[in-house]
Protein backbone atom coordinates (compact mmCIF):
# COMPACT_ATOMS: atom_id res chain seq x y z
CA UNK A 1 0.00 0.00 0.00
CA UNK A 2 1.55 3.32 -1.00
CA UNK A 3 -1.26 5.77 -0.31
CA UNK A 4 -2.54 6.80 3.08
CA UNK A 5 -5.87 5.09 3.70
CA UNK A 6 -8.70 7.54 2.99
CA UNK A 7 -10.28 6.89 6.39
CA UNK A 8 -7.25 8.46 8.07
CA UNK A 9 -7.62 11.69 6.10
CA UNK A 10 -11.33 11.73 7.05
CA UNK A 11 -10.36 11.12 10.68
CA UNK A 12 -7.98 14.09 10.82
CA UNK A 13 -10.52 16.34 9.07
CA UNK A 14 -13.18 15.29 11.59
CA UNK A 15 -10.80 16.09 14.47
CA UNK A 16 -10.20 19.53 12.95
CA UNK A 17 -13.95 20.09 12.64
CA UNK A 18 -14.63 18.91 16.18
CA UNK A 19 -17.36 16.60 14.87
CA UNK A 20 -18.07 13.63 17.10
CA UNK A 21 -20.34 12.08 14.46
CA UNK A 22 -17.74 12.40 11.71
CA UNK A 23 -14.96 11.01 13.91
CA UNK A 24 -17.10 8.06 15.01
CA UNK A 25 -17.98 7.34 11.37
CA UNK A 26 -14.27 6.58 10.92
CA UNK A 27 -14.36 3.84 13.57
CA UNK A 28 -15.69 0.31 13.54
CA UNK A 29 -18.69 -0.08 15.89
CA UNK A 30 -16.42 -1.78 18.43
CA UNK A 31 -13.51 0.63 17.85
CA UNK A 32 -11.50 1.68 20.86
CA UNK A 33 -9.02 4.37 21.80
CA UNK A 34 -6.08 4.18 24.21
CA UNK A 35 -5.11 7.65 25.44
CA UNK A 36 -2.37 8.65 27.89
CA UNK A 37 -4.73 11.13 29.60
CA UNK A 38 -8.13 9.45 29.37
CA UNK A 39 -7.21 5.75 29.46
CA UNK A 40 -8.60 3.02 27.21
CA UNK A 41 -12.25 3.12 26.24
CA UNK A 42 -14.64 2.70 23.32
CA UNK A 43 -14.27 5.43 20.70
CA UNK A 44 -17.98 6.20 21.22
CA UNK A 45 -17.12 7.29 24.81
CA UNK A 46 -13.71 8.83 24.21
CA UNK A 47 -14.52 11.41 21.54
CA UNK A 48 -17.58 13.00 23.19
CA UNK A 49 -15.44 13.44 26.30
CA UNK A 50 -12.48 14.83 24.39
CA UNK A 51 -14.61 17.34 22.49
CA UNK A 52 -16.43 18.35 25.69
CA UNK A 53 -13.02 19.19 27.20
CA UNK A 54 -11.93 21.13 24.09
CA UNK A 55 -12.75 24.50 22.60
CA UNK A 56 -10.86 23.94 19.34
CA UNK A 57 -8.19 21.87 17.69
CA UNK A 58 -6.35 21.49 14.43
CA UNK A 59 -3.97 18.93 13.01
CA UNK A 60 -0.91 19.20 10.82
CA UNK A 61 0.03 15.83 9.36
CA UNK A 62 3.78 15.27 9.32
CA UNK A 63 4.31 11.61 8.39
CA UNK A 64 2.41 8.40 7.66
CA UNK A 65 4.07 5.06 8.27
CA UNK A 66 2.53 1.84 6.97
CA UNK A 67 3.76 -1.52 8.24
CA UNK A 68 5.17 -3.29 5.18
CA UNK A 69 4.21 -6.67 6.66
CA UNK A 70 0.59 -5.70 7.45
CA UNK A 71 -0.93 -2.63 5.80
CA UNK A 72 -3.72 -2.57 8.42
CA UNK A 73 -1.11 -1.19 10.85
CA UNK A 74 -0.44 2.51 10.30
CA UNK A 75 1.21 5.27 12.32
CA UNK A 76 0.22 8.91 11.87
CA UNK A 77 2.70 11.51 13.10
CA UNK A 78 1.15 14.96 13.42
CA UNK A 79 1.04 18.17 15.40
CA UNK A 80 -2.18 18.56 17.37
CA UNK A 81 -2.93 22.19 18.22
CA UNK A 82 -5.35 21.39 21.04
CA UNK A 83 -7.13 24.16 22.95
CA UNK A 84 -8.77 23.16 26.22
CA UNK A 85 -12.33 24.14 27.08
CA UNK A 86 -11.23 27.23 29.01
CA UNK A 87 -9.10 28.51 26.11
CA UNK A 88 -5.77 27.20 27.42
CA UNK A 89 -3.52 26.12 24.54
CA UNK A 90 -2.23 22.56 24.97
CA UNK A 91 -0.45 21.74 21.69
CA UNK A 92 1.67 18.65 21.25
CA UNK A 93 3.33 16.40 18.70
CA UNK A 94 1.74 12.97 18.58
CA UNK A 95 1.92 9.60 16.94
CA UNK A 96 -1.34 7.70 16.60
CA UNK A 97 -0.86 3.96 16.16
CA UNK A 98 -3.81 2.77 14.12
CA UNK A 99 -5.11 -0.71 13.43
CA UNK A 100 -7.55 -0.66 10.53
CA UNK A 101 -10.37 -3.12 9.96
CA UNK A 102 -9.69 -5.94 7.50
CA UNK A 103 -11.32 -3.96 4.67
CA UNK A 104 -9.16 -0.88 5.56
CA UNK A 105 -12.33 1.25 5.66
CA UNK A 106 -12.48 1.97 9.41
CA UNK A 107 -10.33 2.22 12.50
CA UNK A 108 -10.50 -0.79 14.81
CA UNK A 109 -8.07 0.55 17.46
CA UNK A 110 -6.18 3.78 17.91
CA UNK A 111 -3.38 4.23 20.46
CA UNK A 112 -2.36 7.83 21.08
CA UNK A 113 1.32 8.37 21.99
CA UNK A 114 2.65 11.71 23.23
CA UNK A 115 4.36 13.35 26.21
CA UNK A 116 1.63 14.54 28.59
CA UNK A 117 3.99 16.26 31.06
CA UNK A 118 3.83 19.76 29.49
CA UNK A 119 0.01 19.86 29.55
CA UNK A 120 -1.13 17.48 32.29
CA UNK A 121 -1.59 20.12 35.02
CA UNK A 122 -3.65 22.38 32.71
CA UNK A 123 -5.75 19.40 31.60
CA UNK A 124 -6.36 18.34 35.22
CA UNK A 125 -7.37 21.88 36.18
CA UNK A 126 -9.80 22.27 33.28
CA UNK A 127 -11.28 18.77 33.21
CA UNK A 128 -10.99 17.69 36.81
CA UNK A 129 -8.93 14.71 35.57
CA UNK A 130 -7.40 12.87 38.49
CA UNK A 131 -3.71 12.75 39.23
CA UNK A 132 -3.91 9.01 38.59
CA UNK A 133 -5.17 9.52 35.02
CA UNK A 134 -2.63 8.39 32.52
TrEMBL record:
Coiled coil: none annotated. InterPro entries: NTF2-like_dom_sf, SnoaL-like. It comes from Actinomycetospora straminea. Residues 9-104 form the SnoaL-like domain. This is SnoaL-like domain-containing protein. It comes from the Bacteria.
Amino acid sequence: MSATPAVLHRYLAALDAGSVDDVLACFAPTGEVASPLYGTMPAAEFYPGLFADSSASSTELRRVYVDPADDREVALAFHYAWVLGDGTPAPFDVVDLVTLTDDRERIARLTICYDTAPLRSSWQRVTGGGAEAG
